[in-house]
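Translate sequence into structure tokens.
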Amino acid sequence: MVGELMATTAYFVKKLGVLSFAKLGAIIGMMYGIIMGVVIAINTVAPAVRMSDSMVLGVGSGVVTFIINVFIGVILGFIGGAIIAFIYNFAVGEMDGIEVDLEVRQ
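Result follows.
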């Protein structure tokens, strides 16, 4: 087993499922929205507290900012993923597709 050569086979991705790729985009967009939501929420709390002299309002605005960022990240990621898959499917007609080398294991 050790030192044994594994065979690789080249395959070509000829078509992407638009809906499945859009779902992947939504997950990536959600992760981006969470990261950006935390960063922006932290930067929103202090000015809101200073403007209103209310910690509750400051924290509330930070939470709302976080939720909006995650929601927008999911929506834009879904739309972006669908657009990328649609463009790929259109363009792959003019080329061979993306080559993927897969390793065969036993």
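Note: The two ends are 10 Å apart (CA to CA).
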